[in-house]
Every structure is written in structure tokens, then in C-alpha cells.
Amino acid sequence: MPHANAPLTETGRLRLARCVVDDGWPLRRAAERFQVSPTTAARWAQRYRELGAAGMADRSSRPHRSPRQTRPRQERRVLHLRTKRRWGPARIAGRLGMHASTVRKVLVRHRAPRLADLDRATKQPIRRYEHPHPGDLIHVDIKKLGNIPDGGGWRIVGRATGRRNRAATPGTVRNAYGKPKLGYGYLHSALDDHSRLAYTEILPDETRETAVAFWHRAHAFFAACGITVKRVLTDNGSCYRSKLWRQTLADAGIAVKKTRPYRPQTNGKIERFHRTLTDEWAYAKPYPSERARRAALPRYLHLYNHHRSHTALGGRPPASRVPNLCGQYN
User: Fold this and answer.
1) Rg of the chain over CA atoms, in angstroms?
2) Where are the beta strands (DSSP E) in 33-96?
3) Which of 28, 167, 270, 287 is an S-S bond match for 292, by CB 3.0 to 4.6 Å?
4) Taking the alpha carbons of 75, 81, 87, 90 in that order, is the dihedral positive or negative?
5) Packed helices 100-109 and 89-96: angle between N→C axes, nearest 10 degrees
6) Using one digit for the tens of pLDDT, what is the confidence trace for 65-78?
7) Is residue 154 a contact partner of residue 141, using CB atoms and an 8 Å limit?
8) In this structure, how many other beta carbons lie within 10 angstroms of the beta carbon of residue 77?
9) Which of 151, 285, 139 has the alpha carbon at shortest distance from 198?
């Protein structure tokens, strides 16, 4: 494309060339008429003689040879470290004895995807998807969290005091080695694929009966928000492979989908939600007890659904994508 101050466009070049070649104008007269140098007028006239009107298009300014360009073998090593090790330009440069700026140019030249766009497990570019309407797909998953003893866990008070607090907390049992064991809480979560609207409960186990009872409450939550659930996606956990789970969803007219074995990234939206939940709620501050942490969960879920900006939604909260959600402006 011609720059802003170029006197000739492709149409102007063609007119100049036709004046010289077809009408027999002298080069100096044509150059003066179109306000270019005689050398430029001669170049476009010669291209018109050789290629006709097609010769008026811009040509690449890239040189035919680049003797100082990085060798293909070295470029392959750069791309290998990028995709297999997920390294950035500085680290690749240190490994191969190159300049980081050179590595960056190689990556740009080969259109290597950003590290943030590569799957952590497969090192392949992430294929992102989003269903067009709320309820088209609901992600369901379970995350296990260790319970906090009364008085604080080892993250707050240290391992020795944390052990004593755990032993003194009601409900603590001893494992086979005689050490106090407080048990776990199980985060059962359901997340709408389109809006990212989330519903979570902390339950005592991950049995099929518990999972089905949770889904009844989650289904009621989405229905109250005006969302009609059509499909549910889960991993291959035993509770989701049970006949009770399949029959419960089938009775409600909901299709059941499963992720591929050993491919948790297929259910990546809820995996990322659980990561956000642990960072911003579960381990966001030193809770003095498990009761205090659980008491803070409803407030955080309201913040997440109604007020927290979401990067995948253009900085808006999930409630902004559910038109019928009551109280979304609270």
C-alpha cells in the first residue's frame, strides 16, 4: 500500500505508463505532469511494457537473500523449545546462546502462539469455544479441599501449632499412623458455559447420591435465573458414571456429556473457576476455622456472579449475560 505522501497510486502509475508507452510522451514531460522524477517514470513505463496493468501493483521490499538471517536448523531448535518446554524468548536465548530479540523475531516470523494460548498438558494451541445461549451447556465438577482446624491451620500458625489445633478440633480422627486427620470438604460446582454464572456448595463427600442432590439444587438455581439447561458436561468420576446420575438428567430432558479420559482441559472453564475460587476465597486470607471459611463462600459467590469483572466477558460480570436474572444490579 502506498504511504500517505506518495504522489502515485496504482491508478496514477497506470496513467503515467500509458502516457509514455501508448501516447508517446517524453519521460521528462510525463514526470513533470505526474510530479515524480524521470527515473520513477521510466520504472513504471518499463513495468507496463513487460507486465501490462498488473505490473502497477506494489512489490515486496523483502530482499531476495538474507545471509545474516538465523539458520533454519537454529530456528527449528527455537520452535522446539517453545512448544515442548513452553519457554519464553529470554530463556530460549540463554539455552541456545542467542539474543532474546533474535529469538523473538524467529517466533514472530513463524507465527508461534503465545504461551498463554498453549495447553499446559499437550503444549498445543488451545481451541476455545463458547455456546451461544445460557443453558446450552453446564459444566459440573468436584474439587476437594482440606478442612481448617479451629484456631487456624499450619499455613497460618506453623506446622507444630497446626497439628495441635487439628487434634483439638471436634470431628478429628486418627489415621493408620496415629496422626490427627480432620478430613476434607468437597466443592460441588456448576458453571454455565455462556454466561459463566456459577453455583457451588461444600458437601461432605462425592458419592452419587450427594452429586444428584446437589444437581437438583443447582438446576433449581439456574431455573430461577431464567436459564433452561439443555446439556451437562462432567468428567468421568464414579458419581457421574452412575446410573442414578444418568437417569436423573434424562428424566429432566437434559443431555449428558463426558470429557475424554485424562483430558480435564475439555472441562476447562470449571477447572479455571475452581482455581479462581481457591485463590480468591479458600486461601485468600487466614481463616481461623473451617466454619469461618464456609461462611464467607455465599458472599464471594454473589461477588463473582454479580460484580466481579470477567476477562472472557469483556470485563463484565456473569450476571450481565443473563437478561432474566433477578437482582443482578444489587
Assistant:
1) 32
2) none
3) 287
4) negative
5) 110
6) 888 889 999 999 99
7) no
8) 17
9) 139
